Predict the structure.
Amino acid sequence: MPSTTTTGIETDVAARAIGATKFYGSGDTEVRALDGVTAEFERGHFSAIMGPSGSGKSTLMHCLAGLDTLTDGRVFIGDTDLSTLSERNLTLLRRDKIGFVFQAFNLVPTLTALENITLPMDLAGRDPDQEWLDRVIDAVGLADRTSHRPSELSGGQQQRVAVARALASNPEIIFADEPTGNLDSTTGAEILDFMRDAVDNLGQTIVMVTHDPVAASHADRAVFLVDGKIVDEMMEPTAEMVLDEMKLLSRR
Amino acid sequence: MLRLTFRNLGANKARFAMTTFAVVLGVGFVVASFVLSDGLRSSFGDLSDEITAGTDLQVRPVSEFGEPVPLDETLVDEIAAIDGIRLAVGFVEGDESAMQPVKSDGTTINSVGPPQLTFSWVDDEGLGAFALIEGSAPDETAEFSMDVDAATSNGFVVGSTYDLITPIGVVEDATLTGTTRFGSANDTLGAVLMHVSLDEAQRLFGVPGTVDEIAIRLDTDTDAAAVVAEISQVIPTYGVEIVDQATLNAEQKADFNQGVDIVGNVLLGFAIVSLFVSIFIIYNTFSIILGQRVREMGLLRALGADTRQIRRTVLGEALAVGLIASLIGLLAGVGIAQGLIALFDALGASLPDSPIIVSLRTIVLALTLGIGVTLVSALAPARAAASVAPMAALRDGATLGHQSSRRRLVVGSTLLSIGIAVGGFGLISPPSSTLNVVLVLGFAAAAVFLGVTLVSPVIAEPVSRGLGWPVAKGMGTAGRLARENASRNPRRTATTGAALMIGLSLVSTVLIVGESVKSRLGELLESSVQADYLIIDDSDAGVTPKLAADLADTGQFAAVTGFRYDEVRLAGFVTDMIAADLSSMGLLLSLDLQSGTLPAADVTDVIVLHTDKAEDMGVGVGDTVTVEFASGDAAFLKVAATYDDDTILDSPIVPVQVFDDAGAAAVDQWVAASLADGVSAAAAQPLIDQIQQRYPQVSIDSAAEFQERFEASIDSALTVVNALLALAIVIALIGIANTLALSVHERTRELGLLRAVGMTRRQVRRMVRWEAALVALFGALLGVAVGLLFGWGVVSALPADFAGSLNVPFLRITLLVAVAAAAGLVAAWLPARRAGRLNVLDAISHT
């Protein structure tokens, strides 16, 4: 649902970066991780941020998700300018509006699958929407695994729990950081199908960082980053198209 | 979030167990001290009710100061004649250990244990609190009875004869006429309780014609107030009082409770030291465990946990650990109390059967202390955990943030300065009450410990490198790595060592003060004592004046005098006074006379004053001063001399005759004697042996022997204190084991790598053990350094006569440090074994 900002403009953009710039270090050792990136990620879409390692794609995601701060420029979640938020409000925003899927799954080892899934709501002190929760668990196919601990689950199952966790609170946007990076190709494809499904059938918005052309082919759109700058983008990418583009970029 | 708290506790059970153990021990001793003293108070209260129940009134001497003068025994009959009084009995009690029976094997009952007390027999169970069990009551000269437990355990048989060591010499072949029971259960606390007839007591204790108190039973239906009025008519108006049963009972209870409180408070003190030590261990455990969960904290933060929630999760874990530990500690405390009772039993002081009283106060205090200590310790780690950035979830090898070194250093040195300042103030002008002294010095010590702990990471790295040099040289790769590990995390090394520092600093303080006192005594004996022999009683009973007279009668001595002490009022102020033979003083002690001369033996109306005292009073040689005694008598004495050397005698001194005339103390506290010219020590020895045989209860020592005896008694006191402090050291060693175990877990991957590239299990074990030894050594040295500071402070604050200059027992302290390092090696045995047993493949894939 479009929301109204202070400027009164209605938008269908879930996340946006304007002139996003991030430096690490200073002087001779200064690294320009983001160099004035401006990009929009639409609601209800599955977007991929692509680029070779060191291109700044993870940094862009971290900054968009409010995990890291910019040196210059602005990022918005919906119509909220993250640079204006206090640490506490940033925390609340992450809790209520954003879902995460990490490469290393990052489940809490002492909690069961179900408890991990509902953790963000527990943190917020909210009761999960049971109907939605059932739908999500059903969608990722974990109905018979909910009382298992992460150590009792396979990598693919763990990542499905992580995806379910991101979906469970029905956030405005989900950021996925190389979600298939630690998985074999079959299991990875499964996860990507779930994510695709979440966008198509559950109406979610997903922004995924990846360097895997096959993963990117599941997205509606791919944005290409090199040296902290957006150099190209592609709608309805296929694995071959992305691969060609990547080869092209690496020759630059 | 609560769920997460409990899950984490469950997942880290083993790691928290050792933390819990530290708290359990501390809380356990707190509880034990309360349970023990509550139980004893209750049973002593009952005992007190019982033994005072039969006495309606008591007439006894009182005095404002000094020793009260005993009552004239003719008072007993006068009081007994009053209407309404059924029974009035005069009563004499000997000083502790004044009479000692000799067992059939020729030895006396151990005199360092519970006291041996002798009373005159009162043939009425209500008034005397004793009942005959076997045989008859002592009635004649050289007859005595004994309480049944003492008789049984020491092999005394009714009807047999035994020698009695008494103030007037050995009474040979006294008959044990019977055995008795004290109260209903003979709860004597291991004391030996004996009776003789009233006449015999007066003879043995040198108080003919007098009684210490008169116990009175009234007829039923008698107006007590009227009887009291009648008694008042009979007794002297000065120095005698009448008290009722309620007062007696209250006094008796207060008397018992004083002893109970001392035991309880000493235990409590050591318990608090232990709890303080646990703070460091709990802090370390939480820091390390949280350090291993940084990714998890970051994840929670990324998922939207705010800093408060993280802090609450960690503090929730601390709360649960504290609660569980306190509850176990509560149970353990009851067990420890029972153990202590058994220990007292084994040492011969059987305590009365006490109920186990766990009062609400004990429970509340145990929970408050246990939980409080755990929460306080977890505060800093919780803050650090809460400040983990969400990004930590995405990074490998993220570590727990700490407050900056600079801030640590500033806070640490501030605490250190405050501690030293408060401690200095407390030592230089100590507060009036003992409690306040303990509180002030306790606070100062705590501030110093915390300050040193905060500052010590700065030196932890270079010092452990330095200490580790020989280990690295001698132990090959394992040694080198042990040294690296001990210095790689200075904060951890510092905090772990700090726990050990506390115990060791207290022990070395005690050793240093003890050594300084001992060496000062040697100097004093050297400089101020010329006497060849010093004679003291092994008990507190004092030395009968007959001994000094017997020595003088041998004609082998140039000077002999006993020293008696009593309280008098001099020029309006209550003060101690000493009576001695002033004429012989020159050959025994150096007084360093400033004016006048010591009087001849036949001059009896004189006094010798310390120069300060004379100055205070504004008198000089030739002036007359007034001395009032407890008996109400007064004496007018002329100042004969003033002296300056107050190392041995520090009060006004008068001739013995002055005390005798005024009815003041009649027993010598100690005796000094010097041989006549031409009599060698060897020649005098048979004579000394003969006197010793006549008075077995005293020790006749040369100056050197006296010094040895005194040093031995200081040493045994030090041993007791250090044994109790050992608890704090044991807790610290548990802390070292715990930290090492956690470090091993933390370095699983690294250890796996080392094993993979060819390190043997033995080498791994050795590496872990030597790291522990280095950490222990660091803590021990820190402890000795702080101990030197404390020792220096205490020795400087003590009066110069007591402890002069700082004397450090280097050998003992070196030994202590070596033992601590060795204990560190042993403490790390289990973690080292675990490190050695790690499966290489598992260890490498460990995340």
